[in-house]
Amino acid sequence: MNDELSRIQEQVYFGQINSRTDVLDKFLSESGCPRYNPQIVGSKGKPKFTSLSRSIVGKESVLDDISYLHSPNTLDDVKPVTHLVVVDVASKKGMKLLREGLQYLVGGSKIARLGILYNMNSSVDLHSLLFAKIIEIATSSYSHKQKVLNFLNHLCSLYENEYMVPSSLTLESTPVFMEKVYELADANGLPSKSFKAALLDFSVSRMKDHLSKVAQFIYWQLGLEYGVNAVITNGRVMLFGDESTILSHDLYLLESVEFKLRVKHVVEIVEEAKWQDIDPDMLTSKFISDVIMFVSSSMAMRERSSESARFEVLSARQSAVLLGTEDSIIHIDAVLDPLSPISQKLSSVLRVLGKYVQPSMRIVLNPMNSLVDIPLKNYYRYVVPTMDDFSSIDDTVNGPKAFFANMPLSKTLTMNLDVPEPWLVEPVIAIHDLDNILLENLGDSRTLQAVFELEALVLTGHCSEKDHDPPRGLQLILGTKTTPHLVDTLVMANLGYWQMKVSPGVWYLQLAPGRSSELYLLEEDGDEIKDQRPLSKRITINDLRGKVVHLGVVKKKGKEHENLLVTSDNDSHLEETKKGTRTSWNSNLLKWASGFIGGSDHLKKSQGTSAEHGKGGRHGKTINIFSIASGHLYERFLKIMILSVLKNCDRPVKFWFIKNYLSPQFKDVIPKMAEEYGFEYELVTYKWPTWLHKQKEKQRIIWAYKILFLDVIFPLSLEKVIFVDADQIVRADMGELYDMDIKGRPLAYTPFCDNNKEMDGYRFWRQGFWKEHLRGRPYHISALYVVDLVKFRETAAGDNLRVFYETLSKDPNSLANLDQDLPNYAQHQVPIFSLPQEWLWCESWCGNSTKTKAKTIDLCNNPMTKEPKLQGARRIVPEWVDLDFEARRFTAKILGEEIDEPQEPVTSLGESQNLITDNSSKEDKSEL
After folding, report:
1. Is the dihedral of CA 685, 686, 687, 693 positive or negative?
2. Cβ within 8 Å of residue 755, ≥6 positions away
3. CA-to-CA distance for 915 and 194, rounded, in angstroms?
4. Of 123, 152, 840, 886, which has the fewest Cβ atoms less than 10 A away?
5. What are the residues facing 69 on neighbouring strands?
6. What angle do CA 653, 656, 659 make, to 5 degrees?
7. Is 546 left (phi over 0), alpha (psi -120 to 50) or beta?
8. Torsion-angle region of residue 351: left (phi > 0), alpha (psi -120 to 50) or beta?
């Protein structure tokens, strides 16, 4: 009643409900059903529909030969509801259904008619054939008679009680049956002589042929088996087997439900139709009833959304744009919120349709009533292939293009592509910084061009284990027959999701060696499992639409109760992981896979090779450093960070960069830089999963990539990685941090400094929500952190972080600093080891007294001064000018450009010394 309260108030106000009104009876009479049958109005499966119109297109139809029965005195009325009763009169179930249908008409229905379709085997006995023929005569010739329904009721009783069982009948019983039929006809006011005359021409073979034709129609057009009893109401199919039945009251219910939900809308349209090309003599009640039956059954076949659409807005005049002519054979109604992102796409599609299909079109603008913020913050072009792409002169293909004209000159813009989900696209030619486009700086041409390339496709899938949750952490490898391990990933907890980067061709997917293949086997088709050996699944990529693979796995016999991942409930358990060389279950996989994982082919080297021989005199275990940059400015910072790392350590270093946002210039320079300075690098990428709430602002997307996909973005062979912000300067040997024991935690961050008292008002984590949530734990800064990838994967830390993210990110007031807030919020379940304070110094939060001890300096933003990064870098970090000039000089040499000499003295990499050797040297350097 709470849902109906507003209606009650409205009707009380208008006097429709008073003190004497029974509210319950009133509402039930208006909206309720007089009867309940779960097959009709319940949730017992989805209703089945069939189109009756397709059976009459271009040929004679069985439906044309049907003579319908009506309730008394309603023969000439239009009947919007048509019940087609499909019966096998040789069965008791069929006879029960037929008699209930007749009883339904006797009770009186003003809007429905009933037709009979015989679904019998052609080998039925003579009496059944005669029975069907007599009903056919009665319905075709005497359906207008007052007592025809009584005659048919008595006929059914006679046949069912005396002549339905073939074994009890003899040849002499047929004339007796006929005489009794004639007597029933006379008793109900029907001329028996007419029946005798009609039956004189009765042919058993013709009747069997007719029944066979009807049975084939029922089977091929309606999809019903021989002998099935059913009711088809304007296309809705109700089947009645041995365990179900239907009463005359159910037919009333079916009539009421179908008319309210579907048929009445068709009736309203048909009543307004103008039958200009049809002979008026043909516009009978039967013709109109047939049209309603055919149209409503066809409309029912459409897939309908669970959400109801309201089209009252289409009658709008002031906010509608009318295009085209009324003579168009296609009409399009479009209701658009002009300030919504989806309208940006649809407007271009409508434009193409308007040009090439030439429909009549009504575009109704339906904006929101009020806005807190402008929802559109971009200029958008939807590129659709059209006939204009093909030259009318020769065989050249120009290809679809997007043009942006009359753009603002003084606004900083960013260029991005909105591509299909399976595509990985990157810019390959772009002279200008696509993240910081200022058109007024482009010169006289005022035109910016960029070329993008489809680099790869994304193969996605879902992995499941029967009767269990998805096997999160399961490791998968993908390759060819000759090289089985080219890419790898692991299965996420959410939907068992996984993805890999592929190109067109034939691939083979299998479980990775180690714990995954020790516990699991791939399911074969038919759920048949071969003997204890790994299987591979063949996957063919033969188009650009990508592919979604459903992968089933089962536990091996004897392994059903073993867990794939390590459960770490407390810190003491976490501390048991590292003692000397790792003995985790990943070790075999790491040795086996190390030769297959790498970036560009000419840069692939195993860690063992790098450690033994090194590059440029470097030796020892490789240090893996991960960073992300977007735009030319941050790529400039990134090169400085690389040089600062290399100047302060003599071990091999491998850098990992997120490929998604790097410029073509950086990707051209980094191979030469790696060769010159003796380091390795690899470009990695990961497509944002469709089920994960996606950020809209590019900066927040970049922040998300720093933390959300750490378990899947790197090869499974990588054990540990250090994230270093692009705008960071390293002053110490990163090998010290790389080798640090982080006590079995998956993550290690540096807490925020607290000794710069001027910033106390900005330390939000000391008050309100964060103070209560942290409960004494420190709030860490995300500019530098260590990831123990083995522990990170073992403990499903990535899944836990994504669960927290999905919950929090939908609130626009949460995760203001996404890459920082998320791990700090989740540290109760994803433990963080707090690094010593000297590993990250930032002027905004740390006092100058600790700067001499800083092992890295981060150029973090100052919320008080908002000083530009370049200006702050020159002022805060003395060695930054030298490093910047060295990086720019090398870049200019590669790109063939010239740069200005700096005023400060420059120290080359070969002449440089470790910036931190002892306390005295630190102090000297800090004073320069």
Report:
1. negative
2. 846, 847, 849, 850
3. 118
4. 123
5. 114
6. 150
7. left
8. alpha
Q: Are 801 and 825 in contact (CB under 8 A)?
A: no
Distance CA 837, CA 641 (A): 20
**Residue 196 belongs to what H/E stretch?**
helix 192-200
**Token digits of residue 733:** 């040997």
Exposed / middle / buried, residue 505 (Cβ in 10 Å: 0-12, 13-18, 19+): exposed
β-pairing, 437-438 with 412-413? antiparallel
Q: Are 788 and 742 in contact (CB under 8 A)?
A: yes
Q: Which residues sit opposite 551 in a β-bridge?
A: 463
pLDDT at 918: 38
Q: Angle CA(181)–CA(187)–CA(193) in degrees, nearest 5? A: 55
By residue count, the chain amounts to 928
- Which position has the higher pLDDT, 90 or 586? 90
Contacts of 10-17 with C-beta under 8 Å, sequence gap 24+, read none
Query: Please, what is the Cα angle at 294 between 288 and 295, to 5 degrees?
Result: 90
Q: Which amino acid is at 413?
A: L
Residues 582-611 pLDDT 10s? 433 343 333 333 333 333 333 333 333 333
What is the separation, in whole angstroms, between the first and last Cα of the chain?
79
Half-sphere exposure at residue 82, Cβ-oriented, CA atoms within 13 angstroms = 28
**Closest to 266 measured CA to CA, from 302, 230, 232:** 302
pTM of the entire predicted model: 0.64
What b/e readout covers 11-41, taking b as 16+ CB neighbours within 10 angstroms? Answer: beeeeebeeeeeeeeebeeeeeeeeebebbe
Contact (CB, 8 A) for 55 and 63? yes
Cα angle, residue 780 at apex, residues 776 and 786 outer, rounded to 5°: 125
Give, for 323, the enclosing helix (H) or strand (E): strand 320-323
What is d(CA 403, CA 380) in angstroms, rounded to the nearest whole number? 10
Predicted pLDDT at 901? 66
List, in order, residues 6 or more apart from 377 with CB less than 8 Å away.
none
Residues 6+ apart with CB under 8 A from 523: 466, 529, 551, 552, 553, 554
Query: For residue 323, what are the β-bridge partners?
Result: 361
Q: Are 797 and 833 in contact (CB under 8 A)?
A: no
**3-state SS, residue 674:** helix
Instruction: Print burial letters for 524-537: b (CB count within 10 Å at least 16), e (below 16).
Output: eeeeeeeeeeebbb
Structure tokens at 584: 């985790």
User: Is the torsion defined by CA of 96, 98, 103, 108 positive or negative?
Assistant: positive
Give the model confidence (pLDDT) of 149-192 as tens digits: 999 999 999 988 888 776 665 666 788 888 899 999 999 889 88
* 309-312, long-range: CB < 8 A, 24+ apart: 311/335
CA distance 252 to 229: 18
SS3 state of residue 509? strand
Distance CA 515, CA 589 (A): 9
Report the alpha-carbon distance of residue 118 to residue 224 in Å, rounded: 12
| Confidence band of 883 (pLDDT split at 50, 70, 90) | very high
**Cα-based angle 767, 771, 776 (whole degrees, multiple of 5):** 135
